[in-house]
Amino acid sequence: MISVLNKLTNMGNTLQNKTVILGAGIAGISAGYHLKQKGTNTVIYEKDSDWGGLCGYFTINGFRFDRFVHFTFTNDPYIKGIFEKSSSLYEHPSVSYNYYHGAWLKHPALNNLAPLSAQEKTNIIQDFVNRPQKEETQITDYAEWLKVQNGMYFAEHFPFVYTKKYWGQDPKNMETKWIGKRIHSPDLSEVLKGAFETQDENFYYTSVMRYPKKGGFRSILDDCRKGLDIQFNKKVIRIDSKQKEVFFADGTSGKYDRLISSLPLPEMVKIIDNCPETVQQAAQKLHWTCGYQVSLGFNRSDVAKHLWFYIYDEDVPPARVYSPNLKSPDNVPEGCSSLQAEVFFDCRDNVPPAEEILEKTLTKLKEICGFTDEDIVVKDIRFEPYANVTFTHGIYENRQIVLDYLQSVGIESIGRFGQWDYLWSHQAFETGKEIE
């Protein structure tokens, strides 16, 4: 009897000191790993049946596809070392392309106009020379920023179109603080040189893109995942922050002493008991993209020709297309190749049916990439409700209202959607590392 009482007492003590993490994506795994290094064990609750979140993958007939597309290019010695400890990495030169009305331009397009007609190059360069001259403090939205950087003709034919496809927004609806060093701003000499000859110089924001040799992108986290207590199929439907209890769709619940969440902010405010109306309204004003992934496997080795490319044609659904087999041959059976296209929408759009998107995407990619129905051995489309945070006007004020509230009820936020920020994979990992 005494032994049983001792066990019950010890169980109660364990529950009273439970650190809970919501989400087993890159931020949640990082938080669990780094807390374990500091002597704190955690329980990670994951709504899916496997770990990795958007860094996870799925396989079909020997073809591996990541859930949305990822590379790592961090130069942080610590994070780079963690990733490489888990998996040896390929280092791909950051050479990508743009598809525009049948022409292939190296990226960034404004530096590589050579494949275009003389008339179109003239239109672009003339407007670039005569573009508006404004200080950054005078620019009020992303559309204006694009015109100031590129000139009207290029802005309207390239980034305006891409913004609507990738962000699901008219560029005038977006602010500009998120841009940072992500977009190269060329001078006239660069534009002129690239209009007359193919550029060897790479103007991308990073010189290399790294990808695991085996196991898909998620394998960079294999070492961190070891020994973590992850409970799957645990979708959170309610949080009682006063009683410190999390409730799940399967009818179970769990107490916590400390709660760390990587769940999207708009989802969090829906499930916390007695969340104030002002906080809910702020969350409702946030925008993000959702999207389809069209994944194709081929019985030919030569379909994929570029590591990735952007598409500026409005009648082609995907904004970007990547080649999993060029990222790593481990992603396909021998003698095969693969493509993965991303089709994005604003969170408030009426999203077309998957069958419609799949048919349109296939029709256009056959023309662009030169394959036929007979070449296709895998054809898959799946939907992700959260793809990217969108930087519409008011994002910072509304985000802060939600984050301040979560902090006030003792919930710590990590990750791209937990902190509601434009975070690359290594930056999302870092938010988990920063948990004390």
What does the model show?
The protein is an alpha/beta fold. The protein contains 16 helices and 19 strands. It has a 7-stranded mixed sheet. Helix 2 runs parallel beside helix 16, helix 4 packs antiparallel against helix 8 and helix 11 packs antiparallel against helix 14 (395-408). The two termini are 40 Å apart. Mean pLDDT is 94; it is low at 1-16.
Summarize the structure.
The chain is 34% helix and 23% strand. With 436 residues, the chain is an alpha/beta fold. The two termini are 40 Å apart.
Write the layout of secondary structure elements.
Blueprint: H1 2-16, E1 19-22, H2 26-37, E2 42-45, E3 57-60, E4 63-66, H3 77-86, E5 89-93, E6 97-100, E7 103-106, H4 118-129, H5 142-150, H6 152-157, H7 159-166, H8 188-196, E8 208-212, H9 222-225, E9 229-231, E10 236-240, E11 245-248, E12 253-255, E13 258-261, H10 265-271, H11 277-284, E14 287-298, E15 308-311, E16 320-322, H12 324-327, E17 337-346, H13 354-369, E18 376-390, H14 395-408, E19 411-413, H15 415-418, H16 425-433
Parallel strand pairs: 1-2, 1-13, 2-9, 6-15, 13-19
Antiparallel strand pairs: 3-4, 5-8, 6-7, 10-11, 11-12, 14-17, 14-18, 15-16, 16-17
Helix pairs in contact: 2-16, 4-8, 10-11, 11-14
Keywords:
5-stranded parallel beta sheet, 7-stranded mixed beta sheet, disordered N terminus, 436 residues, alpha/beta, single chain, 19 strands
